[in-house]
Description:
Layout: H1 2-19, H2 22-29, E1 34-40, E2 46-52, H3 72-98, H4 106-133, E3 156-157, E4 160-161, H5 162-184, H6 190-213, H7 217-221, H8 229-247, H9 263-282, H10 290-318, H11 323-337, H12 346-364, H13 366-371, H14 379-397, H15 400-403, H16 411-443, H17 450-455, H18 457-462
Amino acid sequence: MKRMLFALSLSGALLGGSVLGGSVAWAEESTAVSSTIASVTNSGSESITTITTPPVTAVPAEPVKQQPSLNTGDTAWVLVSTALVLLMTIPGLALFYGGMVRKKNVLSTMAHSLVAAGIVSIVWVVIGYSLAFGTGNAFIGGLDKAMLSGITTEALTGTIPEILFVIFQMTFAIITVAIISGSVAERMKFSAFVAFIALWVVAVYAPIAHWVWGGGWLMNDGALDFAGGTVVHINSGVAGLVAAYMLGKRMGLGKESMAPHNLTLTVLGASLVWVGWFGFNGGSALGANGSAAYALVTTQVAASVASVTWLIVEKIVRGKASVLGAASGAIAGLVVITPAAGYVTVAGALLMGAVGGVVCFWGTTALKRLLKVDDSLDAFGLHAVGGIVGAILTAVFASSFIMGDKAPADMLHQLWVQVEGVLATIGYSAVVTFILLKMIDVVIGLRVESDDERMGLDLSQHGERIE
């Protein structure tokens, strides 16, 4: 009878517990549950044993790790952007530069852009990409990706195939080298140029790209360079200035006419460069997203404002607004906005374009005379000066409206980081470029002979000419 009464009592307790929440409540509140079981001996004596179960603790579920996955939309956009950036060099820059030289040097000038595409492509896949984006230290990447080792079709950089990132970055290296040719046009040996660019990509471009984009010290310091203000434009402009000094001035400069032979080519080239810059800046978002779209808008706005500003300044200073000035102003605006394209608002782009137009006009005129250098096609005045202005103004106009939580919290600190990157790029590029050119000068010479220069580099270097 006692056993039956106890069983009924225990059943009632369990039933009541289940109605009130039962075992779920025990698990949630982590409370101890005690059960009392009575056993009755044959002699009628009773003993009570208490069994206490340990508290039940809820174990939180492990967070699910998000694995990077291929995004076909992002991939498609970067594929198109890669073609657009290559278009900037061939035929864009080739035509832009080719139209500004004298007729006897057109082919040799265009050949610089064409051969840059070939030489840099080879060097990039062999060792350049690895030194820029391979695993290394704060100053240079390693050799783990030499010959693109380990990069399979499944390997990703963000949401795009890494092999696509390789060729996208290759096109940046190509145009950087081609820009330098603007400073040495009409007087540098073709063989010397080929040797120089092969060495320069490895010794100068790849390390600076690693500093800024490949996990190097400037990237770790928080330097902002959306699409190449330091890596491409300051770097190439400074190298061009050093090369111009080492080569000396063109024969007859200041005594003979150095007027462009065909501005139609120059305008066509500038237009192609402008269109290609959408891939340059928009593609640097590495995705088909709002950041890419905003980069396109700021790029267009800055180029437009700089072109108009250049024309206004030229009209005030020289009395006429030239077609070459409109093209040069557009390039100036494109250069200035490059480091900031994905970081600033439209208002920022308007202001940066206006400043870029004025400062780059000064860089290609008054500053050029002050430096007493024959920077033939103004690579320094447009690209280095514009790149410096853009890099510094990026700190001023970088907006949380665009960048969100990634926007700089302290503008003065960011300004110092940007200046630090500018100074480091100028110093390193100038010193190493000088060393490379000096070595080449000792071995094969940099400048063509006087008779070859008078004849024109088309005939003396390539055995061809335009009739």
